[in-house]
Amino acid sequence: MIHRVTLIPGDGVGPEVTAATKEVLEASGAAFDWEWANMGISAQGDQGDYLPERVLESIRRNKVALKGPVTTPVGSGFRSVNVALRRKLGLYACVRPCKSYRGAPSLHEDVDIVIIRENMEDIYCGIEFEKGSSEAARLARLIAETSGESVREDSGMSIKTISETGSRRIVRFAFEYARACQRRKVTAVHKANILKLSDGLFLSAARAVAKEYPDIEFEDRIVDNMCMQLVQRPREFDVVVAPNLYGDLLSDLCAGLIGGLGLAPGANLGDDMAVFEATHGSAPKYAGLNKMNPMAMMLSGAMMLRHLGEKAKADRVEEAIAAVIAEGKSVTYDLKPGAPDTAVTTWQVAEAVIGRLGHS
Ligand code: NAD
User: Fold this and answer.
1) Residue 320 in contact with residue 356, Cβ under 8 Å?
2) ∠ CA 310-9-51 to the nearest 5 degrees?
3) Is the CB of 64 under 6 A from ligand 1?
């Protein structure tokens, strides 16, 4: 079967890691009909829009996309096109496995955690009010009238929204994932001690959904304590479900536990569409240097193969990557902290993985 997939190279290091991944996926024996599309800075240059309708149409049509990272300016400039893409396509669940690979330099061994991040709500909903604007002043007046609290005149404001519907949906997704993948426990992460009406709602929804899954253990953690416990005892955790912001932060923290962002894949899933992308960003200062680790993107590609029903080929790709890491020769600088001079290029990693696929 030929799989028609939207291929979004992204920007920064995106085109390099995406090209390396495309070669590996094709070498797995799976057949693809790639539909190229782009978003972000490069699309703005070519098509005058950061998120062209063409990209959305392509993903809606093909139902599956493989996407490189896309830059969002920090502090000012346009809003995140990644967030916009997920919201416009209803990709409400972000799945980010963090798994130890033998030979990867890491703080712990035998980590196997899957972060399930809510992708559409929370502080990422994009409702913001600029310092000094008339809208910010109106909102401050409304807050004073309704809560009696005063907001400093020179405040900017970003709104956090958490719904019961969105919370139940993501927690149910986490339990269904746990069941389908024979996982034993789901941990819900929140800050409900302080944010009683938003995170408190998330937690009560999580507790209610958990009752429908008596076969799977459930627990919750306050996010600050969760960070400490993940660093000290990561093997105690299995599937972790969290609202958008904590899910984002915990994914990078867990990537740090297993050897870094170069090994952390991901998927954004909706009811009938899926966009596969690594946890890492576009790392612009490394763009064009051919030195970034493409394995996170390749592992995202393996997740995509599983989603497409190509389990055996996905397993072979993951085994080939694991073998290259274990051998420790053809890996990028991030996996060679003691001997960065012996690191290989992005492209040489692809060749090594393809070589392993040939042997298996
Ligand atoms: P980043 O993930 O791009 O990079 C942070 C650091 O992690 C890098 O400097 C590098 O040391 C390391 N790293 C990242 N990817 C690596 C890889 N493949 N191999 C080896 N090391 C790797 O995060 P950032 O610098 O905070 O963000 C850069 C840009 O990426 C921002 O514009 C941000 O908005 C964007 N971003 C995009 C996505 C996405 O497209 N899904 C995700 C996160 C960040």
Assistant:
1) yes
2) 110
3) no
CA distance 172 to 193: 23
The DSSP bridge pattern shows strands 93-99 and 64-67 to be: unpaired
Amino acid residing at 26: E
Helices (H), 218-310: 223-232, 244-257, 295-307
Dihedral angle at the C-alpha atoms of 316, 319, 321, 324, nearest 10 degrees? Answer: -120
Is ligand 1 within 6 A of the CB of residue 292? Answer: yes
Secondary structure E strands in 22-142: 31-36, 64-67, 93-99, 112-118, 128-129
Residue 296: exposed, middle, or buried by beta-carbon count in 10 A (0-12, 13-18, 19+)? Answer: buried
- Three-state DSSP class for 69? coil
Average pLDDT, the chain: 95
The CA R_g of the chain, rounded to the nearest whole Å, is: 21
295 CA closest ligand 1 atom index: 18
Identity (one letter) of the amino acid at 357?
L
Digit-coded pLDDT (tens) for 286-334: 999 999 999 999 999 999 999 999 999 999 999 999 999 999 999 999 9
**Which residue from 253, 282, 286, 331 has its CB within 8 A of the most atoms of ligand 1, so it is best to mutate?**
282
Contacting residues for 41 by C-beta, under 8 A, at least 6 apart: 11, 50, 70, 71
**More confident position, 286 or 49:** 286
Residues 6+ apart with CB under 8 A from 135: 129
* CA nearest neighbour of 166 among 105, 121, 199, 117: 121
User: Which CA distances in Å does 355 have to 15, 90, 292?
Assistant: 22, 38, 19
What are the residues facing 67 on neighbouring strands? 8
Which residue ranges form the domains of the chain, and what is each CATH number? 1-97+260-360 (3.40.718.10), 107-122+162-258 (3.40.50.2300), 125-159 (no CATH)
